[in-house]
Write a structure and sequence with these properties.
With 588 residues, the chain is an alpha/beta fold. It is built from 16 helices and 23 strands.
Length: 588
């Protein structure tokens, strides 16, 4: 690291921008900003530096005086020789003291930088990556050895902290379990050239798997709860496990932010640009109580502070939860674009300010719980161009059991999840990659599959989807196909296992050997390796023929092209439409 970088990191006495703009110190942690990460280490470095510089000047003066005295008692030749000796001696001493001074400076500021680094690490709150076992495996690497990156972004409505009550109201909700009212899956392609953000609206009824909380408590699986309740059923890890179970997509990390965090981040970047087609005022009406209080004039506004939180929480003025998701995506797009324009990733001062605010605002899964890991993550995101970032919301309809709840449109959701699993871009702007394998040491060989007829396979009929009848005799037909390919111990199960996607499961305890055998089964039937998963509950290799494979001896994945999103999913918008009741003329 260069000296300037160290100095900038170690002595920066910066307070979060929110306080510079008049926000309450307690809200943004003023006391913390002046501790190990504030001015004190820099002042110590300066104090250590000053005496060294002073001593250097004094000694240089003494050396020069001695040289003059010696020269005074000699002749011209002696004086010249003395001058030469003094000059050399002076040079050596100056160089020596410059070296000493530089060493003190570097050591002092490096120490301050280390303290500041540890201060930032101390800001970060972590939690378990997963709250249950979805059985979903990370996608295999492409020809370059790279894999997609998936991050679940969660917005919590927790009122457990007084700061969040002050911003979001609800004093009576201090003890209530938090809801994950914002849930976005950020998918970054394996080549890091495109990205997509997908939202499931908060009131969507989904199957939530069994989850365990940080304290070890167990939450039973349910099919009748909205997805925003996952946060109260074991924390963000349960929200991640639910998403994995629904999508079949392995999610690397989660990141969570609360009300106060939203305000702090919006202030740190100096405001986020958003746009409305008409003036908007989201206020209580005679028919609908509540409202976020958002009040903006027509056109583009850079929102920050509480106004940013109001934008993200507005639902009525944007029509419904689908509209709110679109507005949230606009906000996120605006923030990313502004960070790129500010060159935040290469500006040390800007990056330090963002680091201070972000490490306080965010809670992350444990494998991200360090400044270095968060910085490395940001480096993977910074090169995605704005025209390659697609935002989408899963199309929904009213839930049959409650019109105030939603359910996903199955065909649309299935198509979107397949695109994410197969790393197919949501946009049409990319060019086919010409990948060349990375040089390096070959990976250690994994276990080799045993002979096809040497292990048992259970085949179950899972073709009964949410809106389709099962295909009778499906398990038996696929069993006969396996037998014909040499898997003579395959046997059809009489018990149906309804499932949206086909999968080959193997006992988790069987490790690499179990996986190798399961992969051989999948390949024999044309199933991609991504559909092979470990499962702690199965006793042997189990093939479930899902609703995505209702006919044929060989599995054929539906052909999907880049940008081929289902109707109504792509929600990128330049300006938000406003529901008529909440339009504002900008005067009253």
């Amino acid at each position: 690291m260069g000296q300037n970088s160290v100095r900038g990191e170690g002595t920066r006495g910066r307070v979060p921008r929110a306080r510079e703009l008049g926000w309450d110190d307690e809200l943004h942690g003023a006391a913390e900003a002046t501790g190990a990460g504030g001015d004190e280490p820099g002042e110590k470095a300066a104090a250590a530096d000053a005496p060294a510089s002073t001593r250097a000047e004094r000694r240089r003066g003494t050396a020069a005086g001695a040289g003059r005295g010696a020269a005074g008692g000699a002749g011209a030749g002696g004086r010249a020789a003395a001058r030469r000796r003094a000059k050399k001696s002076g040079k050596r001493k100056v160089l020596r003291w410059v070296a000493i001074t530089m060493s003190v400076l570097i050591l002092g500021t490096a120490g301050a930088g280390y303290l500041y680094y540890e201060h930032l690490n101390g800001n970060i709150r972590g939690g378990s990556r997963a709250g249950g076992d979805s059985g979903v495996q990370k996608a295999p690497p492409n020809a370059l050895g790279d894999t997609p990156l998936n991050i679940l972004l969660i917005g919590s409505d927790s009122r457990a902290d007084a700061k969040n009550v002050a911003l979001g109201g609800g004093k009576n909700l201090r003890e209530a379990k938090p809801l994950a009212d914002v849930q976005m899956l950020l998918h970054v392609s394996a080549d890091r050239q495109n990205a997509s953000i997908v939202t499931i609206p908060r009131d969507t009824i989904v199957p939530i798997p069994e989850c365990k909380g940080e304290d070890g408590s167990t939450f039973q699986a349910t099919n009748t709860a909205p997805i925003n309740e996952t946060l109260g059923r074991g924390g963000p890890g349960c929200t991640l496990t639910t998403w994995e179970s629904i999508t079949g997509v392995y999610i690397d990390h989660w990141m969570m932010i609360d009300f106060a965090g939203v305000v702090a981040m919006a202030d740190e970047v100096g405001g986020v640009p958003v746009c409305v087609k008409t003036g908007v005022w989201d206020r209580p009406t005679r028919r609908v109580k509540g409202g976020s209080g958002l009040k903006l004039k027509e056109g583009t506004t850079e929102i920050q502070g509480k106004q940013a939180l109001q934008w993200l929480r507005t639902r009525h003025a944007f029509g419904n939860d689908q509209g709110r998701a679109k507005a949230q995506h606009m906000y996120l797009n605006g923030m990313v674009e502004k960070l790129q324009k500010q060159n935040a990733w290469s500006d040390t001062g800007q990056l330090t300010g963002l680091a201070e605010t972000a490490t306080k605002a965010l809670q992350v899964s444990d494998e991200l719980k360090s400044v270095k890991k968060l910085f490395d993550l940001s480096m993977q995101l910074k090169n995605v161009k704005m025209n390659r970032l697609t935002t989408a919301t899963v199309p929904t309809v009213e839930w049959s059991q409650d019109r105030n709840k939603l359910q996903m449109v199955k065909s649309s959701a299935d198509k979107m999840w397949a695109m994410l699993r197969d790393d197919i871009a949501f946009d049409k702007n990319g060019k086919p990659a010409t990948a060349k394998p990375k040089p390096g040491t070959p990976a250690k060989p994994k276990a080799t599959a045993e002979a096809p007829g040497s292990f048992a396979i259970t085949v179950a009929n899972g073709t009964a989807g949410t809106d389709e009848a099962p295909v009778e005799g499906r398990a038996k037909a696929v069993t006969e196909t396996l037998t014909g390919k040499g898997f003579t111990q395959a046997e059809a199960s009489k018990e149906a296992q309804p499932r949206e996607d086909s999968v080959v499961m193997y006992p988790k305890a069987d490790g690499d050997q179990g996986r190798a055998n399961a992969v051989s089964v999948a390949k024999a039937l044309g199933l991609p390796e991504a559909k092979v998963r470990p499962d702690a509950k199965v006793e042997g290799i189990t093939l479930v023929v899902g609703a995505d494979w209702r006919e044929g001896a060989v599995f054929k994945a539906p052909a999907v092209e880049a940008g081929d999103l289902p109707a109504g999913a792509d929600d990128k918008s330049t300006c938000m439409d406003i529901y008529s009741v909440y339009k504002w003329d900008g005067k009253s």
